[in-house]
Amino acid sequence: ASELEKLRDVHLYKQLVDLVQKSMIMWRSMLDCHLKQHYIINNMQLDDVFSPIATTEYNIKNTLQLESEVNIWRRNLESLVHTQKEYVFAIHRWLCLHVIEIECSSKRAPSSPQKMSSPPVYALCKTWLSAVNQITGNSAVNALKTFSNSIHELKVHQTEELRQHKRLDHLRKDLEKKELALYDLLQEFKDVFAG
């Protein structure tokens, strides 16, 4: 039992502390990256840079690709948050099964003073689980869903605009043909009365 406790309280604890620290670094790095992106987006002056251009199939293809990538991003974020929660919960459950004297499995009073204190790995895991459970990801996921919906609406508008452009081109060509036919008819009419 003491060898298992040593593995749990020394080796597992060190590895979990390292994992928690690296997770925090990852989340901070993502936050920094997103804050920089947010700053850049807020400071963009698109109205001054771009003049409106007609929508092309290429624009629609790029919009579809952007929509797809945002949806993949959203699903990956949901999966990351879910996986981290499940991982920490699994460790916590394992500790509850193997550290009987702590508060997980029952409210019974410990039978000896030695069993009253929880191992540091359990305290770390409990704190980590509490922190991970506070992460809902809902605001980020909802923002990505809203963004994806906006991109989808843009695609719908682009498709309609392209359809209208094609119809306009068809009508323009039809008008040109009719103008040419009318011009030819007028020429014939002039020739008949002139000659």
Describe the fold and architecture.
The chain has one domain. The model is unreliable at 105-116 (pLDDT under 50). The longest helix is centred in the C-terminal third of the chain and has 57 residues, at 138-194. With 195 residues, it is mostly helical. The chain is 82% helix and 0% strand. The relative contact order is 0.10. The chain has helices at residues 2-42, 46-49, 57-98, 120-134, 138-194.
Helical stretch tally: 5
Q: Helix/strand-derived class? A: mainly alpha
Summed over residues and divided by their number, the pLDDT gives a mean of 84
Share of β-strand residues:
under 5%
What is the helical fraction, as a range of percent?
A: over 70%
Number of domains: 1
The end-to-end distance, rounded to whole angstroms, is: 121 Å
Largest sheet: none
What is the molecular shape?
rod-shaped
Q: Helices and strands, in N-to-C order?
A: HHHHH
User: Total number of β-strand segments?
Assistant: 0
- Poorly predicted tracts of residues: 105-116
Protein name: BZIP-like protein
Domain DUF632: 2-153
Organism: Marsilea quadrifolia
Summarize the structure.
The chain is mainly alpha-helical. The protein contains five helices and no strands.
Which structural traits does this protein have?
195 residues, BZIP-like protein, DUF632, mainly alpha
Task: Spell out the blueprint of helices and strands.
Blueprint: H1 2-42, H2 46-49, H3 57-98, H4 120-134, H5 138-194
Helix pairs in contact: 1-4, 3-4, 3-5
